[in-house]
C-alpha cells in the first residue's frame, strides 16, 4: 500500500555537482502511522533509494530549505514549514523572525523586533497557535501569540497550516502555527550536544542616554538515546539579553475640533505629540525538556515541558506636548483637508496647553509554561490510539510607571506656581520628522524651573491558562479509496483573569497644594541632548526615578491597589470622598472569563486515482461546542432588589452600587473540511482545499462590564464595552495551488479566497432579552409616585458579531533554486523567495485622524515579498534576506492604543558562518542591516503618526556541536 518517492533533499544535486548535509529520503504514504512504524518504513525506503541514486550532500541554509520543501510536498494540507538540522540550529532571535521567512507571512515589529505575525493579510488575532499539537495561551491579554516569547534555539520545527483538516484544533481563520520541540528518539545521532554563544551590539544605543550597547545570546541543548534506543532525552536552555533602544516621534489622535479659519466649519485638532528616547533591557530565559520511552515497537510514551520567562525593563524620557484642545489659541494654522497639521498654540485661561517632561518606567514580566504527556499505542497492525493531557499557562505583569514634570515660574519658591506662558509651534513633515518650537525650550533642562508634579502606577496583570484532554484513534483500511479513518475528541477548560490597580499622586496638569510638587536636586537629574536625526529638538532633564521617588515618599513609595477610588485628587487613597472623579475602573475592568470547549471530529484519509491521476488528501468534519461565561458587575444604582451588594476593594472602601454575577452562553459550530492533492506528474501536483473555519474573539473582549438602568416607566436598557455573548469570527475558505519540484528547487503558485462572515463591532440591540441572557432584573418596579410598573426590554449597546463581513482573496508565488549547473565554486549559490498579493472588501472606519475614513482591517498588506540569496562552499555559508510589506493598518501606542496606517517597510538581514571543522562553527549576523525605521500616519501621510528608529543589531559568535 505504501507509495515511495525520494525527497528533494535526497535528490538535490544527485548525479553531479559539489554542493555539499545529510541525505534524506521520505515516504509519501498519506496514511497516518505511528512514529515507530513510520521510522521503520523510512529506513527501509532510504536504503532502497540510496542503492540506485548518487547522493551529493547538501549543507547549510540550503539543507533547511530543501527539508521545508519536502514537508510541503508530502503534507496533506496547504502548509509551509521551517526545520533545523539539530536542536538549537535555527539562527533567528525568536520564532517570530523565523516565521517571517515563509510565503504570505509578515510581522508587526514591536520595539524593532518581530513579535506578532500576520498570515495572508490577517492580524495575529486570527492566528491560532499550538506547541507540540497543544493549544497555547498568550501573555498579550488577548489571543494573539507573541512569538518573540519562543526562543528559536528550543524549537526544532514550525509549520504554518493555511488550510485546516478536521484533526487540527479549531481557531485560526488566518491559519494555524504549529511549533514542535525535539523528539529525541528521532535524532539521527546517538548523542548530540550543542553550545551556541553570541555577543550582540546595537549601533544606536549611544544616542540614548543610559542606553545599553551590548547584549548576548547563549544556548545549550542535548539529545540522547539510551537502552537500545528505547529511551530518549532532550533538554535545552536559551538565554537572550539585549538592549532595547529607540528614538521616536509619536503623533497623537485628532480628538478635538475648532473652527480655525472662521468658515463656520470645524477643523480637527490633534491632542499633541511626543518626542522621546526609549531604552532598557530585555532578558529572556527559555527551558525545554522531553522524555520519550518506547518499551516496544507498538507503544511510545512522551512527556515534554517548555518554559519561557521574558522580562523587559524600559524607560521613556523626553517630552509630551498637549495642544490644549479647542479652547487653546491657535495662530497660523496649516491644514491638510480639515485636519490641522501645523500652527502655533498658546495657552488661554480655559485651555490646558502645556509641555510635560516625561520620565516613564515600564516593567513587563511575562511567563509562558507548557506541559504535556502523550501516549501512542498501536493496538493492532491497523488500529492506533493516542491520548494526550496538556497544560498551558501564561502570566503577564506589566507595570506602567509614569512620572510627570512641569515648568514652574520658580521652582525655588515656597509655593511654586505653574508657568502658564506657553507657546508651541509645529509643522508636520509627513513621514519625516516635524519642525517644532517652544518658548519654554530653555526651561526644559533648568533645575530651577522643572518640578515633578505627578507619579502614577497602572499595572496590567493578566493570567491565562488552559487544561486539555485529547483522545485520537486511527484505523488503517485496505480499501480502494479510503486509506484510513481518524476520529477523536478533545475537551479543554480555559480561564482568563485580568486584574487592574492604580496609584496616583499629584497632577499632570497643575501643582496641587495637598500633593505638592517635588523640588529636584542636582543628584536627581541629568541634562540630555537629542542627537542624530533628532538633534534639532531641545534638551531636557532626565530624572533618576528612584532618587526622585525616595525623596518624594520618604516613608516608602505606596503600591497600587484595586480601588473604587479616592473621589477627589486632593485626598489620599487611604481616605474616601464619594464626590468627584474616582478610579472605579480598576475594579470594573478586573474580572474572569471562562471557556469550556468540547470538540469531536471524524476524518477519512484518501488514497485513490481519478482518471489515472493519483489522488490523496482527506475529508472530514469537526463539531465544536463552546460554553463561555464571564464575571460581571452590573450597575444597578444600589438597588438591593436587583442584587446590589457591599463590595469592598483592596483599600477598604465599600461600594454598594453594583450587583455581581456570571453571564454567558453555549453554542455549537459545525466545521466541514476537505483537502485534495492530485499528483499530475512525478514532479508536479495540484492541491484544492475547502473548509469552514472560526477564530474566537479576543479573550479580553469576552469580559463583562455592564451598566443596567431601568426608567420610571419600566424600560430596561444597558451597555457593556465587551460582551460574554460574542461568537467566533466565521469564514468559508478555498485554496487552489500548483507545485512543481525539481532536484535543485521548486516553484509553487497558490490562489486563496476567504469569505468572512462577521467581525466584532460595537452595536445596539433593540428589545434585548435581559432576563434570558442572565441579567438579574426585576419583573416589577415601583415608580416615583409609588405606582407598580411591569418592566420591559429596551436597548442594549455592546460588542457584537455584526454579520457584515466580506472577502479576503489573493495569490502567492514561492520559488527556490540552487544553481547546480554553475562552476564548482558557485554551485552552492541559490535563491529563495515569495510574493503574496492580498486584497479585501472588508473595511474599517477610523476617525483618529479627524474626518472618518475607510481603511483596511488590521494586518492586511497588499504586497508581501520575502527574498534570500544564499551561497555555500567548502564550509562557508552566507545569506542575505529581505522582507518587504506594503502599507498596512495596525496599532501604535501613544497615551492610549491608537489604530493607524503604517508605511511600507523593507527589513534586510544577513548572516555568514564558517565551519572550522565538523564540530565548530563561527558566525556573524546583522539584523535590520539598513536601519529601517517604523513609520505610521493617520489615514494621510501628511498626518504623522510614528517615526521610530531602532538601530542595527550585530551578532558575532560560535556554535559547537558534538
From TrEMBL:
TonB-dependent receptor-like beta-barrel domain sequence ranges: 468-929
Keywords: Cell outer membrane, Membrane, Receptor, Signal, TonB box
One GO cellular component, as annotated: cell outer membrane
Listed InterPro entries: Beta-barrel_TonB (IPR000531), Beta-barrel_TonB_sf (IPR036942), Plug_dom (IPR012910), Plug_dom_sf (IPR037066), TonB_rcpt_bac (IPR010104)
Domain (TonB-dependent receptor plug): residue spans on this chain: 79-175
The organism's place on the tree of life at top rank: Bacteria
Chief location category: membrane
Intracellular or extracellular location(s): Cell outer membrane
Signal peptide bounds: 1-25
Family label: Belongs to the TonB-dependent receptor family.
PANTHER family according to UniProt: PLUG DOMAIN-CONTAINING PROTEIN, TONB-DEPENDENT RECEPTOR-LIKE BETA-BARREL DOMAIN-CONTAINING PROTEIN
Record-linked NCBIfam families: TonB-Xanth-Caul (TIGR01782)
The protein's name in its UniProt record: TonB-dependent receptor
Amino acid at each position: 500500500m505504501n507509495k515511495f518517492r525520494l525527497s528533494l533533499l535526497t535528490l538535490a544535486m544527485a548525479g553531479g555537482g559539489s554542493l555539499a548535509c545529510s541525505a534524506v529520503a521520505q515516504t509519501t504514504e498519506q496514511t497516518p502511522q505511528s512514529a515507530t512504524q513510520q521510522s521503520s518504513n523510512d529506513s527501509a525506503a532510504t536504503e532502497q533509494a540510496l542503492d540506485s541514486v548518487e547522493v551529493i550532500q547538501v549543507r547549510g541554509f540550503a539543507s533547511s530549505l530543501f527539508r521545508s520543501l519536502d514537508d510541503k510536498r508530502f503534507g496533506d494540507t496547504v502548509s509551509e514549514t521551517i526545520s533545523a538540522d539539530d536542536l538549537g540550529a535555527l539562527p533567528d532571535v525568536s520564532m517570530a523572525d523565523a516565521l517571517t521567512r515563509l510565503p504570505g507571512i509578515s510581522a508587526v515589529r514591536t520595539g524593532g523586533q518581530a513579535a506578532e505575525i500576520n498570515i495572508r493579510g490577517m492580524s495575529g488575532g486570527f492566528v491560532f497557535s499550538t506547541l507540540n499539537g497543544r493549544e497555547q495561551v498568550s501573555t498579550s491579554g488577548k489571543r494573539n501569540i507573541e512569538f518573540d516569547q519562543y526562543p528559536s534555539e528550543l524549537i526544532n520545527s514550525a509549520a504554518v497550516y493555511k488550510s485546516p483538516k478536521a484533526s487540527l484544533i479549531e481557531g485560526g481563520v488566518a491559519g494555524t502555527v504549529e511549533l514542535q520541540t525535539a523528539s529525541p528518539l528521532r535524532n539521527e545521532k546517538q548523542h548530540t550536544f550543542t553550545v551556541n554563544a553570541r555577543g550582540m551590539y546595537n549601533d544606536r544605543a549611544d544616542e540614548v542616554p543610559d542606553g545599553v550597547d551590548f547584549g548576548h545570546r547563549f544556548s545549550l541543548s542535548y539529545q540522547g538515546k539510551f537502552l537500545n534506543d528505547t529511551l530518549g532525552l532532550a533538554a535545552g536552555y536559551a538565554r537572550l539579553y539585549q538592549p532595547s533602544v529607540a528614538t521616536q516621534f509619536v503623533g497623537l489622535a485628532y480628538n478635538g475640533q475648532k473652527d480655525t479659519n472662521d468658515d463656520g466649519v470645524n477643523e480637527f485638532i490633534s491632542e499633541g505629540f511626543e518626542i522621546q528616547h526609549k531604552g532598557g533591557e530585555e532578558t529572556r530565559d527559555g527551558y525545554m525538556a522531553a522524555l520519550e520511552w518506547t518499551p516496544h515497537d507498538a507503544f511510545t510514551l512522551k512527556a515534554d515541558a517548555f518554559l519561557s520567562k521574558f522580562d523587559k525593563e524600559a524607560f521613556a524620557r523626553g517630552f509630551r506636548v498637549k495642544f490644549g484642545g479647542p479652547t487653546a489659541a491657535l495662530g497660523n494654522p496649516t491644514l491638510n483637508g480639515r485636519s490641522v497639521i501645523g500652527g502655533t498654540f498658546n495657552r488661554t485661561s480655559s485651555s490646558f496647553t502645556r509641555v510635560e517632561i516625561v520620565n516613564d518606567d515600564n516593567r513587563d514580566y511575562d511567563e509562558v509554561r507548557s506541559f504535556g504527556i502523550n501516549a501512542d499505542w498501536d493496538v493492532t497492525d491497523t488500529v492506533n490510539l493516542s491520548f494526550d493531557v496538556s497544560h498551558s499557562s501564561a502570566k503577564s505583569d506589566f507595570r506602567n510607571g509614569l512620572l510627570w514634570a512641569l515648568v514652574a515660574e520658580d521652582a525655588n519658591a515656597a509655593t511654586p506656581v505653574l508657568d502658564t506662558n506657553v507657546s508651541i509651534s509645529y509643522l508636520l513633515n509627513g513621514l519625516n520628522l516635524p519642525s517644532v518650537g517652544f518658548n519654554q525650550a530653555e526651561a526644559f533642562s533648568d533645575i530651577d524651573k522643572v518640578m515633578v508634579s505627578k507619579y502614577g502606577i497602572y499595572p496590567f496583570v493578566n493570567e491565562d491558562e488552559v487544561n486539555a484532554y485529547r483522545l485520537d484513534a486511527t484505523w488503517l483500511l485496505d480499501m480502494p479509496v479510503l486509506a484510513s479513518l481518524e476520529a477523536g475528541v478533545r475537551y479543554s477548560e480555559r480561564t482568563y483573569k485580568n486584574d487592574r490597580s492604580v496609584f496616583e499622586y499629584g497632577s499632570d496638569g497643575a501643582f496641587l497644594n495637598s500633593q505638592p510638587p517635588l523640588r529636584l536636586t542636582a543628584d536627581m537629574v541629568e541634562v540630555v541632548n537629542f542627537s542624530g536625526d533628532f538633534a534639532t529638538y531641545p534638551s531636557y532633564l532626565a530624572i533618576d526615578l528612584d532618587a526622585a521617588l525616595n525623596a518624594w515618599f520618604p516613608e516608602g513609595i505606596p503600591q497600587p491597589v484595586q480601588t473604587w477610588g479616592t473621589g477627589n485628587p486632593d485626598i489620599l487613597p487611604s481616605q474616601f470622598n464619594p464626590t468627584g472623579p474616582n478610579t472605579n475602573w480598576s475594579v470594573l475592568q478586573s474580572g474572569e472569563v471562562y471557556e469550556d470547549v468540547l470538540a469531536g471530529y471524524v476524518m477519512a484519509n484518501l488514497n485513490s486515482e481519478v482518471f489515472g491521476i493519483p489522488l490523496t488528501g482527506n475529508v472530514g468534519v469537526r463539531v465544536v461546542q463552546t460554553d463561555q461565561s464571564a464575571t460581571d458587575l452590573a450597575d444597578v444604582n444600589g438597588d438591593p432588589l436587583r442584587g446590589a451588594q457591599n463590595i469592598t476593594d483592596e483599600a477598604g472602601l465599600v461600594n454598594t452600587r453594583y450587583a455581581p454575577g456570571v453571564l454567558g452562553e453555549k453554542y455549537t459550530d459545525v466545521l466541514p473540511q476537505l483537502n485534495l492533492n492530485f499528483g499530475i506528474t512525478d514532479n508536479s501536483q495540484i492541491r484544492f482545499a475547502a473548509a469552514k473555519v472560526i477564530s474566537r474573539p479576543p479573550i479580553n473582549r469576552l469580559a463583562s462590564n455592564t451598566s443596567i438602568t431601568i426608567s420610571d416607566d419600566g424600560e430596561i436598557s444597558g451597555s457593556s464595552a465587551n460582551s460574554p455573548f460574542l461568537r467566533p469570527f466565521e469564514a468559508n475558505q478555498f485554496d487552489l495551488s500548483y507545485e512543481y519540484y525539481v532536484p535543485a528547487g521548486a516553484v509553487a503558485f497558490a490562489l486563496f479566497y476567504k469569505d468572512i462572515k462577521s467581525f466584532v463591532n460595537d452595536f445596539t440591540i433593540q428589545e434585548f432579552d435581559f432576563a434570558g441572557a442572565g441579567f438579574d432584573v426585576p419583573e416589577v418596579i415601583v415608580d416615583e409616585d409609588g405606582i407598580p410598573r411591569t418592566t420591559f426590554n429596551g436597548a442594549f449597546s455592546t460588542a457584537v458579531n455584526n454579520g457584515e463581513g466580506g472577502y479576503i482573496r489573493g495569490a502567492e508565488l514561492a520559488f527556490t533554486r540552487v544553481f547546480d549547473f554553475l562552476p564548482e565554486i558557485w554551485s552552492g549559490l541559490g535563491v529563495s523567495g515569495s510574493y503574496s498579493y492580498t486584497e479585501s472588501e472588508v473595511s474599517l472606519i477610523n476617525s483618529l485622524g479627524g474626518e472618518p475614513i475607510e481603511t483596511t482591517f488590521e494586518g492586511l498588506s497588499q504586497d508581501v515579498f520575502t527574498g534570500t540569496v544564499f551561497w555555500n562552499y567548502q564550509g562557508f555559508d552566507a545569506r542575505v534576506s529581505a522582507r518587504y510589506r506594503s502599507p498596512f493598518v495596525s496599532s501604535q501606542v501613544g497615551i492610549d492604543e491608537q489604530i493607524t496606517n503604517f508605511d511600507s517597510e523593507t527589513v534586510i538581514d544577513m548572516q555568514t558562518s564558517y565551519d572550522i571543522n565538523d564540530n565548530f562553527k563561527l558566525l556573524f549576523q546583522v539584523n535590520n542591516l539598513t536601519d529601517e525605521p517604523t513609520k505610521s500616519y493617520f489615514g494621510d501621510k501628511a498626518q504623522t503618526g510614528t517615526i521610530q528608529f531602532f538601530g542595527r543589531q550585530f551578532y558575532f559568535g560560535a556554535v559547537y556541536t558534538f
